Amino acid sequence: LGKWLKNKNRSSFYIGTKAGFNWNNKNEVGLSRKYLSSQLSKSLTNLNLDYVDFFWLHRDDNSVVLEDLCETINGFINLNKVKYVGCSNWTLSRIAKFQEIALKNNLKGFSCIQPMWSLAKRNPINDGLNQISFDESQMNYCIENGLTVFPYCSQASGFFSGNYMNFQDRPDLPRSKYVQENFYSKENFERLERVKVLSDQRK
User: Fold this and answer.
1) Cα 104 from Cα 187, distance rounded (Å)
2) In the 8-state DSSP scheme, what is residue 59?
3) Which residues share a beta bridge with 116?
4) Under a CB-based contact definition with an 8 Å cutoff, are residues 64 and 55 in contact?
5) How many of the other CB atoms lie within 10 Å of CB of 77?
6) What is the pLDDT of residue 108?
7) CA 138 to chain centre
8) Is the dihedral of CA 157, 160, 161, 162 positive or negative?
9) pLDDT tens-digit profile of 167-202?
10) pTM of the predicted structure, to 2 decimals
11) Distance between CA 13 and CA 152 in Å, rounded?
């Protein structure tokens, strides 16, 4: 991406990066000042950029004092390395607390959030990922406080692609096990059928 952007008009793109959770190295987690600084610097170097538009805090970290975290991200903003900061998979209570701290100290808080959202209802299994689904209380809070929402997993990890039908096993697909564990239910397959009908009407 960095090489591709080199000869492009930077102002024409909104570019974001994440820190706080590494899929490939579960030891690289947390929101300490040192870790966030190193991850942001690494991303800027890899992208060959001076700044990113969005800096996402990928997971919450209860071991970090929110006041300190707020100061850390505002330091990135003041250094013109980051324009906006958002959070992913934070509970509403923690989001509200962070915003309260930012307002109280005349600092910038979150501009956006990234929750899980899909028409498919996720099965209540505990996979250790702490994925926070978007609900009505979060929606109302975002509307009232002007937070932009960037949902992820809207396709339910491929469930709505049409590759999964009628509880069939699809071991040939890379995320088959995850999709089956999280989204296989009578209710979701009924929703999939309704989505197919709407899709066919728009062809």
Assistant:
1) 44
2) S
3) 133, 152
4) no
5) 16
6) 97
7) 14
8) positive
9) 888 888 888 888 998 899 999 999 999 988 988 898
10) 0.84
11) 20
